[in-house]
Amino acid sequence: MKRDEIRIRDPFILTDREHGCYYMYGTTALREGTIGAKNSFSVYRSVDLVQFEEPKVILDGGQSGFWATHDYWAPEVHRYNGKYYLFASGIADGKRRGTSVLVCDTPDGTFVPIVDRALTPPDWECLDGTFFVEDGVPYMVFSHEWVQVGDGEICAVELSQDLSHPVGEPFLLFRASDNPDVTEINGEGSGQYVTDGPFLFREDGKIKMIWSSFAHGRYLVLEAESEKLAGPWTHHGSRFDFDGGHAMLFETLEGERMISLHRPNTKNAERAFFCKY
């Protein structure tokens, strides 16, 4: 399959140097004409980021008995302590949207829940959990959704070393409106600001983050930086001038840093997009 044939939101790339290939995960079980999704995650394998093999299912919620029943969104796979961990969001009737952690010995095998529940607070509406380690301590960084709090939040929670449960309470990193470029959705005066897709990396001795929101009427990738995870965070605008977002960074097999995101942010038209960062 060619990349432009795959409808995908939130594309996440894992580079496998040992086998000389890439794995692409993302929100792909999408329903026609909506961002709502069914209950599966798949992976696409490529050696050049242009041509991809047919997708392989890595989580089938209908067979696994996983707690979430639909809207399987924004999967990320991180290698940690010799295993592969899938951070992924979902929802079920009578339960809040949240991010869970699943594990597998390989990047394209069947992932199983470490515990069959979300690790985000059960009474919060959350999504887009990502993984970050600071001073040997693992954390999940995630979005506390605007649908519940109005001014969307980026929060973090410490995880146990085996990533099976949170340690302590989540803490706030920043709110969407802390970035002066972010504009309200649903009209001026709504008080509703989006936080989507945090991804953290280190550069120039600092912790940096890319995340997405609506800025000047378009879905964009924004930047923030801090000396430490707990903050304070300094905010910056977007390097890009197109309608696309929910991004992450990866290195190619040749060592070049790239950004991966979906664009445009238009139902049915979303495709993975890669460029230098």
Which labels suit this protein?
mainly beta, Tachylectin-2, Chain A, four-stranded antiparallel sheet, 19 strands, 52% strand
Beta-strand percent range: over 45%
Return the structural class.
mainly beta
What is the N-to-C succession of helices and strands?
EEEEHEEEEEEHEEEEEEEEE
> What is the topology, as strand order, of the major beta sheet?
1-2-3-4
Give a description of the structure.
- With 277 residues, the protein is mainly beta.
- It has a single domain (3-276), classed as 5 Propeller (Tachylectin-2, Chain A).
- It is 3% helix and 52% strand.
- The protein contains two helices and 19 strands.
- It has a four-stranded antiparallel beta sheet with strand order 1-2-3-4. Strands 5-6-7-8 form a four-stranded antiparallel beta sheet, with no helix packed on it. The chain has a four-stranded antiparallel beta sheet with strand order 9-10-11-12.
- A hairpin with a 6-residue loop joins strand 11 and strand 12.
- It is globular.
- The protein starts with 8 loop residues before the first strand and ends with a strand.
